[in-house]
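The methods section describes the discrete structure representation at length, but only in general terms. Each protein is reduced to its one-letter sequence and a matching series of backbone shape codes. I believe one specimen quoted in the main text would settle the matter. An entry of this sort, consisting of the sequence and the corresponding backbone structure tokens, reads as follows.
***
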Amino acid sequence: MAYTNDYQAITGLSKVYIAVQQQDTKEGVKYGQVHVVDSPKSFGVTPESSLDKAHAGNRVVQVAQTRAGTTFNMSFHSLPDELQEEILGEERREDGLTYSNSKHVSPYLGIIAEFTKEDGTSRFVGLTKAVLTPAAEEGSTKEDSTEFGELAFEGEAMERIFDGERKISKSSKDEDYDFSVLSAAVFMDSAAMPEA
């Protein structure tokens, strides 16, 4: 089969879709409401794998690949406080303050990143089960020019217990492209639709 190269590289990042995973068992998987964040600055996924060699007869006779988890990072210009609390497992109490202590843990998330290309098409990368480390909060004094801060997260993605899937991707250029199919595969719900 011959493949055609469209010579279109990723040139931007449009949106990130995030939902908290509420259940992941052999019987089923469930996510909460899907939130669309339209101010992402960066998103990167790095699969972890290793190659192990089998030696025999004074040479390598076989190579086995082990695919472990996946690390990823994402940063945002800003996030609503309520969403940040939800994806980090922090608690806003009746006094209006947000609390984080050793008893709070970050929940598992489903995430889809929408990368854009110059020809107007998109490439979507979805992670089915990911967990974040809390973002550092930093600032510096304002000087001659303004420096914008960002919220930067790092995390790990792993396979779902329900079906063993870890990463799902799709291009909007494909003839059979339908975002609802991708959304259903990642979030088990077709409710997260991109804006036209």
